[in-house]
């Protein structure tokens, strides 16, 4: 069976998720499109790079990402760094003919996203942006029902991504609060996951009307580079510096196909952990999904008789998308790992077939254009049209 050599850059939380997926993918999807071989891991901190190579089972490590891009044996470059270096690495990787898996959001700016998309297109490499939540089987089942017309024409939708890890004002000023490293705050970090899912389920966005807010204007300076995701030291003597991105965003969406909806994202919603939800209403029924109960899709079909119509729960299993590859009984439990394993499978399958999977760099660029429209609309308080992709 064909082997594909992986070079992974950025040894934080996402490196763990991707490494588990590389190991697990062939165990679920057999025969696998290729066997991933974990060749090299890179982190700017040598200790972290060395330790991660041992923990995540990479053959070698380095502190210099160029080593991966320049290595003729590497087939796939996996970018798990903060957003500000995605573009430089991805463009170099594309020019070196590597296939690229990149963490979300695709880039720091729309211009960078466009350059990444064009470099990948010019070099004919396969790309994917790691918006993994759309790969949850229940989300794919929602897509299947929509495609089959089971809920008719979509009228409206609402989507949320609510977390609380940044609600504590004493949690540190990690890169996720610094515009020059992350681009935008809750919008890019988590709002884009919902944008990806709703673009996938409902269709292209035409225009948005948004509000953003920064509730905690400064935070304690973080010691070290590790992304501590809100782990507060509760020490008021640590000097603070300004936050220059949004803590929260909320926007209305007009889709090109006439559907209308709302999207909200915040990391300051006490009590909400990974509350990714959508509810979609159509002329023939409704669908509801909550990632915190990700084995379930709630469905209501208007054609059910008056005496039995209402939401019911479908537990995903072998009869549903990816079901044969996963677990033999519905509700045994889909996790974050499974979404990443499915993502890896779809990426490798696309490479094997010489085509682009979704979401690819073009989709990532489209989502950056939507984020730009959200930021612009929040400034002007006007409906703002999403700009077209420049091919
Ligand atoms: C932090 O909000 C974060 O790690 C996001 O960056 C991820 O995309 C999300 O999957 C989990 O939360």
Low-confidence stretches: none
Helical coverage, percent range: 25-40%
Shape: globular
Oligomeric nature of the chains: single chain
How much β-strand is present in the residues?
A: 15-25%
The domain tally reads 2
Write the CATH homologous superfamily of the largest domain: Dihydrodipicolinate Reductase, domain 2
Treating each run of at least 4 consecutive H or I residues as one helix, how many helices? Answer: 10
* CA(first)-CA(last) distance: 36 Å
Structural class: alpha/beta
Succession of helices and strands:
EHEHEHEHEHEHEHHEEEEEEEEEHHE
What small molecules accompany the polymer chains? alpha-L-sorbopyranose
The whole-number mean of residue pLDDT values reads: 97
Q: What is shown here, in short?
A:
With 391 residues, the protein is of the alpha/beta class. It contains ten helices and 17 strands. The chain binds alpha-L-sorbopyranose.
Descriptive overview:
With 391 residues, this protein is α/β, with parallel strands linked by helices. The chain folds into two domains: 3-132, Rossmann fold; 135-358 and 367-379, Dihydrodipicolinate Reductase, domain 2. The protein is 32% helix and 24% strand. It has ten helices and 17 strands. It has helices at residues 13-28, 46-56, 66-70, 86-95, 110-123, 137-148, 179-182, 186-201, 336-353, 361-380; strands at residues 3-9, 35-42, 60-62, 76-79, 99-102, 127-129, 154-162, 205-213, 218-220, 240-242, 248-255, 260-266, 275-282, 285-290, 296-301, 312-315, 384-385. The strands form three sheets. The protein has a nine-stranded mixed beta sheet with strand order 16-15-14-13-7-12-11-8-17. The chain has a six-stranded parallel beta sheet with strand order 3-2-1-4-5-6, with helices on both faces. Helix 5 (110-123) links the parallel strand 5 and strand 6. Helix 8 (186-201) packs across helix 10 (361-380). The longest helix has 20 residues, at 361-380. The chain is globular, with a radius of gyration of 21 Å. The protein starts with a strand and ends in a 6-residue tail after the last strand. The mean pLDDT is 97. Alpha-L-sorbopyranose (SOE) binds next to helix 8.
């Amino acid at each position: 069976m064909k082997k594909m050599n992986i070079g992974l850059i950025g040894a934080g939380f996402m490196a763990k998720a991707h490494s588990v997926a590389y190991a697990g993918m062939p165990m679920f999807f057999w025969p696998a499109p290729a066997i991933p071989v974990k060749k090299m891991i890179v982190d700017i901190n040598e200790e972290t790079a060395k330790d991660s190579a041992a923990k995540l089972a990479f053959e070698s490590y380095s502190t210099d990402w160029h080593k991966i891009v320049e290595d003729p044996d590497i087939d796939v470059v996996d970018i798990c760094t903060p957003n500000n270096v995605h573009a430089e690495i991805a463009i170099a990787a594309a020019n070196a003919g590597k296939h690229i898996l990149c963490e979300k959001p695709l880039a720091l700016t729309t211009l960078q996203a466009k350059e990444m998309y064009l470099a990948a297109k010019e070099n004919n490499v396969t790309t994917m942006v790691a918006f993994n939540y759309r790969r949850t089987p229940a989300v794919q089942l929602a897509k299947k029902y929509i495609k089959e017309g089971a809920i008719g024409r979509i009228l409206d939708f609402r989507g949320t991504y609510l977390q609380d890890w940044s609600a504590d004002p004493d949690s540190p000023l990690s890169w996720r609060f610094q515009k020059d490293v992350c681009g935008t705050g809750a919008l890019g970090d988590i709002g884009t996951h919902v944008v990806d899912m709703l673009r996938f389920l409902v269709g292209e966005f035409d225009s948005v009307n948004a509000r953003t807010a920064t509730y905690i204007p400064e935070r304690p300076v973080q010691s070290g580079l590790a992304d501590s995701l809100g782990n507060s030291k509760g020490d008021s003597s640590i000097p603070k510096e300004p936050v220059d991105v949004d803590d929260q965003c909320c926007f209305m969406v007009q889709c090109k196909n006439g559907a209308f909806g709302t999207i909200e994202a915040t990391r300051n919603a006490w009590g909400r952990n990974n509350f990714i939800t959508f509810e979609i209403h159509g002329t023939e029924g409704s669908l509801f999904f909550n990632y915190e109960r990700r084995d379930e899709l709630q469905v209501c079909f208007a054609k059910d008789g008056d005496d039995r119509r209402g939401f019911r729960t479908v537990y995903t299993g072998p009869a549903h998308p990816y079901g044969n590859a996963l677990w033999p009984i519905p509700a045994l439990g889909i996790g974050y790992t499974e979404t990443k394993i499915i993502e890896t499978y779809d990426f490798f399958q696309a490479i094997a077939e010489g085509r682009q999977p979704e979401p690819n760099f073009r989709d990532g660029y489209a989502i950056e254009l939507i984020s730009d429209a959200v930021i612009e609309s929040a400034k002007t308080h006007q409906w703002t049209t999403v700009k077209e992709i420049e091919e």
